[in-house]
Design a protein that fits this description.
The protein has a single domain, classed as Rossmann fold, CATH 3.40.50.2300. It has a five-stranded parallel sheet with strand order 2-1-3-4-5, sandwiched between helices. With about 120 residues, the chain is α/β, with parallel strands linked by helices. It contains six helices and five strands; from the N terminus they run βαβαβαβααβα.
Length: about 120
C-alpha cells in the first residue's frame, strides 16, 4: 500500500481522487494549496504526489520546483494533474513553464479514472 498526497484547491476533485485511490488500497492524504502541500510532503513523506498547477498562493509549478531542489524530497515522483493547457490563453501560465518542471508525469484535466490510476501505478513501480 502506497501513501499518496493529493494537492489541489478543488475539494470535490480531491474527494473523488481520494475515493478512487482508496479503492485501490492506497493511503491518501490531502492538501488544498501549495504551502500546505509542501508541509504535508515534509511531515508525511508520501510515496507519490498528485499536484494541481493552478492554485491560490504557491502554484504547482513552484511547489514542484521546490520539491525537486530539496534532496529530502527530490526522489518523490510528482504527477501534475491540471487544466493549464485549456487556460493558457487566459492565464500567465505557458507550455514552456510546464516543460521546465521536473515532474515525472503530466495529465490534463479532466482525466478518466482508469487513466489516473494507471499513471499513479506507473509512478509507484
Amino acid at each position: 500500500m502506497a501513501k499518496i498526497l493529493i494537492v489541489d484547491d478543488d475539494p470535490d476533485l480531491v474527494e473523488s481522487i481520494e475515493r478512487l485511490l482508496k479503492s485501490k488500497k492506497h493511503e491518501v492524504i490531502a492538501a488544498y494549496d501549495g504551502d500546505a502541500g509542501l508541509e504535508k510532503v515534509r511531515s508525511e513523506k508520501p510515496d507519490a504526489i498528485i499536484l494541481d498547477v493552478m492554485m491560490p498562493g504557491k502554484d504547482g509549478y513552484a511547489v514542484c520546483k521546490e520539491l525537486k531542489s530539496d534532496p529530502d524530497c527530490s526522489s518523490i515522483p510528482v504527477l501534475l494533474l491540471t487544466a493549464v493547457v485549456s487556460h493558457i490563453p487566459t492565464t500567465a501560465y505557458s507550455m514552456r513553464d510546464g516543460m521546465e518542471i521536473e515532474a515525472e508525469d503530466y495529465i490534463d484535466k479532466p482525466v478518466e479514472p482508469d487513466e489516473l490510476v494507471n499513471r499513479v501505478e506507473e509512478l509507484l513501480a
